[in-house]
Amino acid sequence: xxxxxxxxxxxxxxxxxxxxxxxxxxxxxxxxxxxxxxxxxxxxxxxxxxxxxxxxxxxxxxxxxxxxxxxxxxxxxxxxxxxxxxxxxxxxxxxxxxxxxxxxxxxxxxxxxxxxxxxxxxxxxxxxxxxxxxxxxxxxxxxxxxxxxxxxxxxxxxxxxxxxxxxxxxxxxxxxxxxxxxxxxxxxxxxxxxxxxxxxxxxxxxxxxxxxxxxxxxxxxxxxxxxxxxxxxxxxxxxxxxxxxxxxxxxxxxxxxxxxxxxxxxxxxxxxxxxxxxxxxxxxxxxxxxxxxxxxxxxxxx
Length: 302
What we know:
Blueprint: H1 3-7, H2 16-28, H3 39-62, H4 69-84, H5 88-91, E1 164-180, H6 185-190, H7 195-198, E2 203-211, E3 226-228, H8 231-234, E4 238-239, E5 245-248, E6 251-258, H9 266-270, E7 273-277, E8 293-297
Helix pairs in contact: 2-3, 3-4
């Protein structure tokens, strides 16, 4: 017998699945789980009721003969009615704990690129969920502004598994700006009265990018189109990707913004290119090396 076996002799392994089933059976007999259709919600409610029972027992033993029977008659129905009706159960993952403290385990998925090149606004090792943090860094908080405003599933960004292409910008024209929100009614409509501009401290410019051919461009995925090269860095501005539109066949309308006033970024944009999801060519190679699409890259989910 090894040292480990000797030290752990007589130790009983916990079967959490069996414990959960026993707990569920116990509270189902009380009738307090009736009306809950989801098995997951039933297990959650059973754990909460068990926690309440433990707390009542603790109070009963520490109140020097105090009577908690009267409160027990209403405590369990209150837990059943209140928690089952919380909207948090539908919006986020709720997991009751059996102890005052515990560890949380979760998976975070990151962008992986052998070349370390950014993909649709993401850099190598960025979290697919956005927020500017990865894994346990989330304990320090997330960033939901600036370049992180439109990253992640919850911001309706997509295109992670799409083939992508780099499109050459042939000409750029300024539709509006640089201007601050509220300067003109036309400009405010162009940025769709976006709340990021309503604060009155953010300047923006609306640009039309003309490209020779956008046939391969995925029209259903405008938010994933990203200016690449020197465009954004030129004036330290940020592309507001959610406001990208396609006013005509070979034109994309983009919005760039900055917290303080800046000069026109049209020159910098003209020297750049646009990376965006494309319609999957399924093995055809007519696009690669053409004048309007500089590269096609297909990815599996990072």
